[in-house]
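Re: weekly structure request thread

Next one in the queue (196 aa):
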Amino acid sequence: MRPLALASTTETIRIHYHRLPDRDDVFVQQLLERTADCVVTFMPSTPLRSSVIVRDRIVLENGSAVIWFTFRDAWHDIGLFHLPDGTFTGTYANAITPVRSLDSDSWETTDLFLDYWLGADGASALLDEDEFDDALTRNLLDPRTAARAAAEMTSIARAAAAGEWPPAIVRDWDLGRAFASLALERASKAAHEGPS
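Done, posted below.
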């Protein structure tokens, strides 16, 4: 496994991210907020092998910022996606196994193929159903886990249609707040370390 981003001067979270059948990545994200039920992390410049495209539109590119929200015992996480110039493109839910070791600085989770997209323009879509179906055909997912992932995305889609998703903590964050939070953390750390 190789890190896909470098640690900053702020506290970081290392996410060991498994993609079935045998791909493992380690993402290093900067900690912005930790509550009892949610951890907010930040990738100011996301390293991507290829752009993320939804309905023929690029919604995330190499070097784009993403604010991530990881919830205790949830079967998904949420990302606020942007373009490299900072333009907000939408909210992305990723079906995953519940994160292990959420209270530590090193987590582990497995991608479950399905994703849900709510664009800045209000358009929504269930994504990667073909990959999910292929994973079932190839027996990469057991039926119980697959059913749980599908139910999670269905629940999110219903909540979004009712105007009840994303949750409040996601709506409280934007790119300006994320960068301001990093700047405050760095200034605080520098003040505590004093002159060298």
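Residues 48 and 55 are 19 Å apart (CA to CA). The chain has one domain: 12-129+136-164.
Next request, please.
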